[in-house]
Amino acid sequence: MQATPLLLLYAVDSIIGDFTVADLQRACPDVSIDMIWHVLKKLKKEEKVIFLRQGRSARWRKAKEEKERKF
User: Fold this and answer.
1) Is the model's pLDDT at 71 over the cut of 70?
2) 59-64 — which CB contacts under 8 Å span 24+ positions?
3) Which of 17, 50, 59, 62 is surrounded by the most beta carbons within 10 Å?
4) Which CATH architecture describes the domain 3-70?
5) Angle at 25 between CA 20 and CA 31, to 5 degrees
6) Residue ranges of the domains in the chain?
7) Which DSSP helix (H) or strand (E) runs through 49?
8) Beta bridge partners of residue 49, listed in sequence order
9) Per-residue model confidence as pLDDT tens digits over 14-38
10) What does each C-alpha distance from 60 to 1, 3, 4, 46, 71 come to in angstroms?
């Protein structure tokens, strides 16, 4: 795997709570927006993140945090 997706995976893993694409852009300024969306879509397909809201204020959450909130 290339370093860029690994960097994004590390950034997502280190975030606590909900996050936005802008949060990932701040954490990984050298990574393109297209790569961020590519990795987020892959993580969503793998059910590792949950897409909470669309639009300018789109938010994401790690799936394991969602499970912890239910208990």
Assistant:
1) no
2) 59/18, 59/19, 59/20, 60/18, 60/19, 60/20, 60/21, 61/17, 61/18, 61/19, 62/12, 62/13, 62/15
3) 62
4) Orthogonal Bundle (1.10)
5) 135
6) 3-70
7) strand 49-53
8) 62
9) 999 999 999 999 999 999 999 999 9
10) 23, 22, 19, 14, 20
